[in-house]
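Appendix B. Worked example

We walk through a single record from start to finish. Start with the input: the chain for PRMT5 arginine-N-methyltransferase domain-containing protein, Arabis nemorensis, length 52.
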Amino acid sequence: MEPLSEQERIEVGRRDILQTPLQPLKDNLEATSYEMIERDSIKYIQVYATLC
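Next comes the structure step. The output line below is what the pipeline stores for this chain.
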């Protein structure tokens, strides 16, 4: 079995789990929330595409 890639390690434990949407203008988000988004390349690209 091949070792997990960095992206797969990030995704483990977050698959198939509904999460409350982030509300950066309403809630004071911790830096770890932003770090998680930045490390999750697919989500980061989609968020960037939506905002631009």
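Two observations about the output. The chain has a mean pLDDT of 76. The two ends are 40 Å apart (CA to CA).
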